[in-house]
Recover the amino acids of this structure.
């Protein structure tokens, strides 16, 4: 094994630990939302803020978490694609089996890895619980009352939720398009992945779903001359 190859693989190994540290730090976003939920309940019980504003605030916090997750997922996939492109300059097709198979194909543009999916479920679950809590407490008891008794503040959590949903839809669409643009402009060296099965561990775009930006014809990757 050449010295360049040894040095490269050693740096890859170190980078994996850096990624682990980064993923641990991201957990604090979810912790912040959970702490916020307890803080909001405490403020409501002390009659410091009305329940309508409290639920709206929690929906905003949940949307903030999900927005960060969409952005983190984009940066993760983009950086992983850059790493894969660099790896293709050094690794050979045989390394798909001998080292790892991830560099052979880029992740599909909508893929979110499990660490972020868990936090996404937490943020969405907290938002849904607060919406249901508010509906049972503030909307359901007065659903048959005359329209003249309507209070605008009761609709505030649903207005905030609707605005947050539109923003998150736009952000997710933007992040997917940004990743799609990156893959179009920097697809990297094509790799012969015959015999490699991609699935839940490394989801990729399946044939017929990537007509816009097809990969160039497959060929064996050769170690670049240094």
């Amino acid at each position: 094994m050449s010295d360049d190859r040894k040095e490269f693989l050693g740096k890859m190994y170190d980078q994996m630990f850096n990624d682990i540290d980064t993923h641990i730090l991201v957990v604090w976003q979810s912790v912040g939302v959970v702490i916020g939920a307890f803080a909001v309940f405490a403020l409501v019980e002390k009659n410091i803020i009305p329940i309508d504003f409290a639920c709206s605030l929690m929906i905003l916090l949940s949307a903030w978490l999900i927005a960060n997750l969409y952005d983190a997922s984009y940066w993760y996939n983009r950086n992983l694609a850059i790493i894969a492109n660099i790896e293709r300059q050094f690794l050979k097709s045989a390394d798909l089996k001998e080292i790892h198979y991830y560099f052979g194909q880029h992740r599909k543009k909508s893929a979110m890895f499990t660490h972020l999916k868990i936090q996404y479920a937490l943020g969405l679950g907290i938002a849904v619980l607060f919406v249901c809590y508010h509906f049972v407490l503030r909307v359901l008891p007065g659903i048959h009352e005359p329209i003249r008794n309507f209070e605008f503040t009761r609709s505030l959590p649903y207005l905030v939720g609707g605005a947050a949903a539109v923003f998150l839809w736009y952000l997710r669409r933007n992040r997917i398009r940004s990743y799609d643009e990156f893959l179009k402009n920097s697809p990297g060296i094509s790799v012969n992945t015959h015999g490699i099965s991609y699935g839940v561990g490394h989801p990729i775009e399946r044939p017929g779903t990537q007509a816009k930006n097809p990969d160039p014809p497959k060929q064996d990757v050769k170690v670049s001359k240094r």
